[in-house]
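hey m, so remember when u said the tokens were messed up on ur end? i reran from scratch. heres the input so u can diff it against urs
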Amino acid sequence: MSDLPRKAVTRTAKLAALPLGFAGRATWGLGKRIGGKSAEIVARELQQRTADQLFRTLGELKGGAMKLGQALSVFESALPEDIAGPYRAALTKLQEAAPPLPVATVHGVLAERLGEGWRELFLDFEDKPAAAASIGQVHRAVWHDGREVAVKVQYPGAGAALLSDLTQLSRFARLLGPLIPGMDLKPLITELRDRVAEELDYGLEAEAQRRHAEEFAGDPDVVVPAVVHQSEQVLVTEWLDGVPLSEIIADGTPEQRDRAGQLLARFLFSGPARTGLLHADPHPGNFRLLPGPEDGEGAGSWRLGVLDFGTVDRLPGGLPETIGSCLRLTLAGEAETVYELLCAEGFVKKSIALDPDAVLEYLLPIIEPAEVDAFGFTRGWMRAQAARIADPRSPAHQLGRQLNLPPSYLLIHRVTLSTIGVLCQLGATVRLRDELARWLPGFTEPPEAS
């Protein structure tokens, strides 16, 4: 029997309470204002109460509900600051924390998957989880050979919970929309549901992590923990110390913020070129900043530690060359050629005709970070982009509604948006153009034929 709230009716009721709770608090707020309390104070209280309920409900349910919360947390940069504040703390909690499973349940999973003598595999095992996420929690331990390890234990019933939650959440997507104004949550939830089977398979995750660990072994910028042991519902990897990116976002120095942002961009663009895989879950809870080696290449600098390879996009040839070519040609003002490429790749449906110059005008502000040598990502810049595209009165909104996202680009699009969200949370100045030129096929002008 699972310790997750598994019964569909129970989980559905809890999820349904979210939008109902938002409406109830709005009525409560109106009463407070009639009673003489200022609108500003009431609004702050409403937002804080909503954030508290959001974290408590999504965190307790874990599964797909919590995964949606984690996905939303990287987009808080797009919210107006007076709304974002109360949600920020609650949503970022979802990146690394959730109510833990009872110790007996954890021991039961370990005994079932590693054998009754599972304790003999460890010199030490900490019952209190070091982190808890949407489908599993992580315990710190010492492997029998003396290595410090992270033991990831999947929640019993996680698969059923994920599918049930995401089905229910898709029905409430419109009601949950005010959390991220202008963003259509239904495609995001659909995509999350499509990836459930892969993320539940720790064999696939171990394979993806091994490939990254081998490729980045000895890298001066990126550290990926090696896989120590894997079985169904249990994954053991080397332990990785370091400062969580969520702490850098909250309290990091400008140097740490810029370095973290540069390395995040470098890893996410170089990964597909080097491994044929795209790490597709770039929320701050999956990254650490740790000191570089004492000598040799990278000495005295920070490195980026990368965790959780449960969600990856398989790109054997690296990122599609069309992306790099469109970026380069858009920056060059080649409206007609860009439009032809977008049509050929399916971003513009055959039944729709758009003005190439209008498409170029739509794209240029979004790709501004690739236009300059170094770009300062800020919440203000992201809010301006979100507002431009979300405003129903704007030409950008009308044009954006007519563009199409081909299925093969779904994860790439999500990773790009999420990464930009994290860079804006960091407030990092990043030489993004350098990373694109080095790792993105098609971004650099192709050599002329001799």
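this time it looks ok to me. Residues 8-34 form the longest helix (27 residues). if urs says something different then somethings off w ur setup not the seq
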